[in-house]
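Worked example 2:
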Amino acid sequence: MRLTLTAMTLGGLLIALPATAGETTLPQGPVANTVMPPGYAHAVAQMAYAWGWPLVNLQTRRMMYEQVPIIGLLGPTPVAPVNQLAMLSDYIDPTIRVVAHPNQDVVYGFGALALDKEPVILQVPDFGDRFWMFELADQRTDSFAQVAKIYGTPPGFYLIVGPDWKGEKPAGVEAVLRSPTHTGVVIPRVFMADTAQDRKAIQPVLSQIAMYPLSAFDGKVKTIDWQNLPKLPLPKAAADQPAGETQWVTPERFFGQLKRVLSEVPPLPGEESLYGQFRALIGAAEANPAIAKVLQDTAQQSEKELVDPLFNLSSNGVRIANGWNRPFNNAAFGTDYLTRLAIAKSNIFENHVNETTYLFREEDGAGQRLSGLHDYTLTFPAGQTPPVSGFWSLTLYDSLHFFAANEINRHSTGTKNKDLKYNADGSLTLYIQHKRPAQDKVANWLPAPEREFALTIRAYGPSQALIKGDWTPPPLVMGKR
């Protein structure tokens, strides 16, 4: 007879039990009553922090939206209860801090999924020729559905369901979109030109973007005036609220939240042993105050030494030509925990690589941070702006990955700007500097702060040359003052 080891939990400890027959099953973590030294606990806890940080981030966001009573404005931020969606009606406000590294080429929306409560209906309007995409991401920040202009997605109603849903597609619904996790997000992005005419023209189609529980579905298109949302009372800001992005992961609470994540998010193929290690670690901490202290100390250390350095865009993805770098598997991470963590920290909610290419630059050719103490130019040769079916942009961020205030209130430039001036040979030169340039260059000026800054090129609807990396940005040239 072959021995199979199964397991049960008793008093927070993982207990191995013999079965009577079957194939041998190897343990997926420390076996029953194994003594866990602090050094081993520290090693596993550090890996757990790297693995779990993005998932805890999403869990905390869901918890926040579970407190939202109605669709409305929380300061400059549109919010909605879980399983509903709130839209902006213009570019994102520069003072918003709920997510770092946004852009000002699209009108955003955001909805938090809680699919264990109920499936939801996603309402997709007819956008005509306008470029658009809806990001649907699970708790791992992986994309799980293709809903965008580039896929030829027809307008209509779409049903988003969780991993355990077993119902039938309702009449009038185009398709069922299944998330592998109950927690997730839906983020519409709709291109808008930086003109008064397009700000007006986009409003009717924005009003038809909606998400709501399946129980509210009646087959009729619902419309919402996103320009006139009710204002919700702001909670009292904590005195120690950081200047950057809202803190969604708190080291002191991390391992308590991770225990819940492990019970709610099923492992990917091959992750079973990781789950076993993490569960054994948390069980040991619950049974031993010394191990519990190791977890708390490791969480604090990991936040500072592991996560914080990944905020730098130069640590995000792969270094390519001319000093730029980029990820090649955004929103399709699999077991690439490093890239998933780096993006979650610096630029969370990236679209799938087939939908958007992100290219980053925050250092000059000598490895020094870009600074408004210098002037820079970026020149695209004739016909060699980013090759896209949608649009492209160059956005400038301060050291916290938010917009830097400037005299012309411009934070990005590209397709949305209709007054860019091309050179006589057809090339396009952008001027990135703090001091206002000569008047004939202002249309191509991207104002920089006096301090450090970073640059991001976004290419929506990237060509295969962009997706594969055959197209790369030109060099950033530092001028002399």
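Residues 1-21 have pLDDT under 50 and may be disordered. The first helix runs from residue 38 to 65.
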